[in-house]
Amino acid sequence: MTTSLPKIGKPATNALNNIGVTSLEAVSKYDRTSLLGIHGVGPKAIGILEDALKAKNMNFKGETDIEVPFQLTGDLSCDNAPKRENMLTFLINSALIDEDKLRTVLSEDVVWEVAGAFKIEGFDALVQELTEHQTNIASIEVKANISHGKSGAIHGTQTAENGSIVYFSDVFEFESHRKDAKIKYITSYVIMDEGEF
């Protein structure tokens, strides 16, 4: 189900319709600068669109209400999908090593396996592993965040402050199909730019 565009004026509506943007979901696929560059779409229309997006828990592409000490871009809209939100919460808070927030999305007996590197069991062991290998992060780009039933996956690129890049893909299994189900199994695939694990 899509959400109609708010009343942004005929010129702005026509300009968006001309590029195939007829819903708020379509607006969220564009960054605000690109939309401002379209003849007929001005700051007032952008402000109205931003308010409408926020009312539906969406943002312009590459923007988020999540406050983190690094740049966070990409597929950040959870579109009322709690499991997508949980995976994003895991990604962000494993980088920050925020135990309280991690505890809200991970089961106590969570299993984390990094293919070809290690397999650990339990929340405390996971936090210890994160702590021992903490990196100062400059940015994380989420390429995709998808969920279906008891499964989900998120992948993207993490850049450290020293310039090293990690390409990651995390595959998740949840405790159940319930919306509030916690993550019970994570399989991570990691490629570092130096070719090391």
TrEMBL record:
It comes from the Bacteria. GO terms for molecular function: DNA binding. Keywords: DNA-binding. The keyword DNA-binding applies. The keyword DNA-binding applies. This is DNA-binding protein. The lineage of its organism: Bacteria, Bacillati, Bacillota, Bacilli, Bacillales.
